[in-house]
Structure formats: structure tokens, C-alpha cells
Design brief:
Blueprint (H helix, E strand, L loop, with lengths): L2 H16 L1 H4 L26 H9 L1 E16 L5 E15 L7 E12 L2 H6 L13 E13 L4 E8 L23 H6 L11 E9 L4 E9 L10 H4 L12 E11 L9 E20 L14 E19 L8 E10 L9 E10 L9 E10 L2 H12 L10 E14 L2 E11 L16 E11 L1
Antiparallel strand pairs: 1-2, 1-16, 2-3, 3-4, 4-5, 5-6, 6-7, 7-8, 8-9, 9-10, 10-11, 11-12, 12-13, 13-14, 14-15, 15-16
């Protein structure tokens, strides 16, 4: 095989890893509206008490939310410029359906519009906003849940994202970058970006309250929400109705410990330890089926297959300060770390951490200010591949070891049902030095934007 042929084959293989649709956009975890949110927190209010009546008499709660945002890349990345994108979410929940106590049914729909800054302006791995996705209208969540043992055990079956309940760090939900909702490590490593916005998957979940402090959650998802194929996985399941059950299994086990008290003078905390396992086949990032480097002119271009994948994670979310006698204000610190095997993954370590301050000013009890970072490394196998590309003349520079995002944000509560959120993100090593549209390593980017969230 000629060098040109080998490089062409490898470029196609690398494209499966690096295309924005495959590696970046599925990484988000959106802030879905709570279907049972208080009517006082919506723009349309309680409809003269009818909204509460519908909830109390029929168990029906619902919500429509619009998140619209404009983001501009001020420097670095792919190019300067600005984009608009948005997400409309409609959700409905019915409790005690058919007169069955403890039985709930939930459904949510997404309408994704506009074009985001990640693929168009920045070229980074960790999506700038957690609403960016391929434009579509689709089904997202669809499940039925049964409460048992006096509410200590709940069983849910249907379709949802893994990040709807698992790996959740509540204080991180303040931030807009996708990695604070769904770890970039999983989105980069697992088929179709894993079951995460906007691709939910069929699943079953059990949640058991051991006592007042400890709960355990176990879940199993279809291993590839969009199914195998080329190009954007979001186009392979544009409507959210693939309902796949033949792509291996992604399983989770998570233990949660709740510390402290949520009273006016308490300092509550949530600590989690979890792990996941995927039963599918994964490509060796470096070697082909003959044991040669995929970058070598003599490679057959077919990655060696490795069975299964796994990861472990730990998180904390702790209140460290509250004004005396005020449970609505305070400062929380949070962190999450996740690790996975080096030999079969694009990324083998992810970490995020930050601080969220609720009610930072007198009279602004519902505002939240936050500063956080998210770090995603390239595995040693992926960096070895980058070195081989340079060695065989297919690249002029090696991959960088990581991509890191630092985000400064402020949620400004304007009125019930309306918040504005100015946001500033610094992206260090956008794309971690991987091939991109400019054919050169990207300079650090500075991105600024504004999100408006309306709840009806």
C-alpha cells in the first residue's frame, strides 16, 4: 500500500473520531423544564388557579421552555463571528395514572433550531453550549415509573438520557458548557456520543433509598442510541423514535450519600461514587488488525477490536456557606472526576470543578453567579497515534494532551419565568491539536454570549 493510500484510509478512520457531529454535539445535557414546576415560576402563571386544580385533581403537570442564545467567538478557535441557536422543550407528566397510586408517565419533545458556536466558530471538543445540536424536532423522554415499598423503591422503564438522573451534580447545572451536564469523556468515547442530549435511549432504572443518607441507583441503556453508521448520529435518529435494542448494553451503578441538613442554618452536601460498563466492541486507537500503527504506510487501515469499555467516577456538591437563617442563599463548591482505560478510548480522564453562589447580592436571592473549569485529556494511546502521524509524515504537529474550558457565568432572574444569563468561556487548546478546518493547531479561544430562558 502506498503512503498516500495509507494516509487516506487513516484519514477516513480518524474522521469517525473527529467529526463535530460524532464527537462534540452529543455531549450536552440540557436543563429540561421540570413538568411540575410551581406555576409561580412561569410567565403564564397559575391561570386563575386552574393550573393547580389540574395538578391536584388529575395529576397532570406540564411545561414549555424556550432557551435562546447568541454566542460570539472573540479570538482564537476557527474564526471570529457570532451564532444564534435555541431549544424549545415541551414536557408533560401524569401522576397516579389510571388511578394507580405511585404510577407516573412522562413525555418530552424537543425542537432544536439555529446553529451553535462549537462547530462553526471554535472547533472545540467540549460543546460551548448545552443546547447545541443538529436542527430537528424529536421525541426525547418517554417513560413510565412505578413507586414501591412506600416510595423507597422506584422502577422506571422507557427512554431517557443517562444524564437525566445519573452523574448529576446539581450546582454544575448553573453552567452552560456541555461538559458540566454530561462528562465529555463519555460523549467522546461511546457510540453516537452515549445516551445524552439530544439522543436518548431505551432504558430501565431502579432507584432504592437505603436510609435517610444513602441511595443506590442502577440502570441499563441500549449501547448506541442512534445505531451504527457514518456521519452525524443525530441524523440517523432525527425523530428520536429509533427505539433500538441491539447495540450492546451500557450499565450504571451509583451510590449517593447525602450529608448535613437543608434547614436554614444547615450545610447540605451530596457525594456520589459510580461506575459504568459498556458491553460493545471498541476500536484500538493505535493498532490495526495486524498490530501495525494505523498511521503506518503499511497499515490495512482496519482498527483492532477490543471487547467492552468501562469507567469510574466520583463527585461532590457541598454547601460551604449560608447567611444566618437563610436557606435560599449560599455558596456551593462542586467537583466530578471520571477515569476510563487508556488503551481503547479517545479520552481517559475528565475532571470538572467550580463554585456557584446563589443570591450573591441583597435583594437578588434567585440570581446565581458561578466560576468553573472542565478538563478533558487525550488518552496516551491517542497521543501515541498523533506521534505516529508526525513520524510517518501524515501530520506536522503532535496532538496536545488536553482541552480545558474555564467558564464565568451569571444567571439573572428578571421575573417569574424569565432569566438572562451572560456567559464567558475561555477554551484552552481547542480540539486538543487534532486535525481541523484550518489544518493547524487552534489558538486558545475566548467566547462570550447571552442566554435567555423563558418558562411558560
Amino acid at each position: 500500500m502506498t503512503r498516500v493510500g495509507s494516509i487516506s484510509i487513516f484519514a477516513g478512520f480518524l474522521g469517525l473520531w473527529l467529526s463535530p457531529a460524532a464527537r462534540a454535539e452529543p455531549a450536552a445535557a440540557i436543563a429540561l423544564p421540570a413538568p411540575c414546576a410551581s406555576a409561580d415560576d412561569t410567565l403564564t402563571g397559575n391561570w386563575g388557579g386552574r393550573r393547580d386544580t389540574i395538578a391536584s385533581q388529575y395529576g397532570i403537570t406540564f411545561c414549555v421552555q424556550e432557551q435562546s442564545e447568541v454566542f460570539g467567538n472573540l479570538r482564537g478557535g476557527l474564526r471570529r463571528g457570532a451564532t444564534y441557536d435555541g431549544l424549545t422543550t415541551a414536557s408533560l407528566k401524569v401522576d397516579n395514572i389510571g388511578g394507580l397510586n405511585g404510577t407516573s408517565v412522562y413525555v418530552s419533545l424537543l425542537q432544536i433550531h439555529g446553529r451553535g458556536p462549537t462547530a462553526n466558530l471554535v472547533g472545540n471538543l467540549q460543546t460551548i453550549t448545552n443546547t447545541e445540536a443538529t436542527r430537528s424536532t424529536k421525541l426525547y423522554g418517554l417513560w413510565i415509573e412505578q413507586s414501591l415499598l412506600g416510595g423507597d423503591l422506584t422502577v422506571r422503564i422507557g427512554q431517557e438520557s443517562a444524564a437525566d438522573e445519573l452523574m448529576v451534580v446539581k450546582s454544575a447545572g448553573t453552567f452552560i458548557n456541555s461538559s458540566f451536564g454530561f462528562p465529555a469523556l463519555m460523549a467522546l468515547n461511546l457510540p453516537s456520543g452515549a445516551p445524552s442530549y439530544p439522543l436518548a435511549a431505551l432504558m430501565v432504572r431502579l432507584h432504592y433509598k437505603l436510609n435517610d443518607r444513602f441511595t443506590v441507583t442502577g440502570a441499563a441503556f441500549d449501547g448506541d442510541p442512534a445505531g451504527p453508521g457514518f456521519g452525524d448520529p443525530q441524523l440517523r435518529d432525527r425523530t428520536g423514535t429509533a427505539f433500538r435494542l441491539r447495540d450492546g448494553v451500557l450499565t450504571f451503578l451509583e451510590l449517593t450519600y447525602t450529608a448535613g441538613s437543608d434547614g436554614a442554618d444547615g450545610r447540605p452536601g451530596t457525594y456520589k461514587l459510580g461506575g459504568w460498563y459498556h458491553s460493545g466492541q471498541f476500536n484500538d486507537p493505535v493498532r490495526d488488525t495486524t498490530g501495525q500503527s494505523l498511521a503506518s504506510p503499511g497499515s490495512n487501515g482496519i482498527p483492532r477490536q477490543l471487547r467492552g469499555n468501562r469507567g469510574i467516577y466520583v463527585s461532590i456538591d457541598q454547601t460551604v456557606w449560608r447567611p444566618a437563617g437563610d436557606k435560599d442563599r449560599g455558596i456551593n463548591v462542586f467537583a466530578l472526576a471520571m477515569a476510563a482505560p487508556d488503551d481503547r478510548n479517545f479520552s481517559s480522564f475528565f475532571m470538572e470543578g467550580g463554585v456557584a453562589w446563589t443570591g450573591p447580592f441583597e435583594g437578588r436571592e434567585k440570581d446565581v453567579a458561578g466560576l468553573a473549569f472542565a478538563y478533558t485529556n487525550l488518552s496516551s494511546a491517542q497521543r501515541a497515534l498523533g506521534g505516529d502521524l508526525v513520524r510517518y509524515g501524515a501530520a506536522t504537529s503532535a496532538f496536545r494532551g488536553h482541552e480545558t474550558v474555564v467558564e464565568l457565568t451569571y444567571q439573572y432572574w428578571v421575573m417569574p419565568g424569565l432569566t438572562l444569563q451572560p456567559d464567558l468561556q475561555c477554551v484552552i487548546n481547542p480540539g486538543a491539536g487534532l486535525p481541523n478546518a484550518t489544518n493547524t493547531p487552534l489558538k486558545n479561544a475566548l467566547v462570550a454570549g447571552m442566554r435567555a430562558t423563558l418558562v411558560f
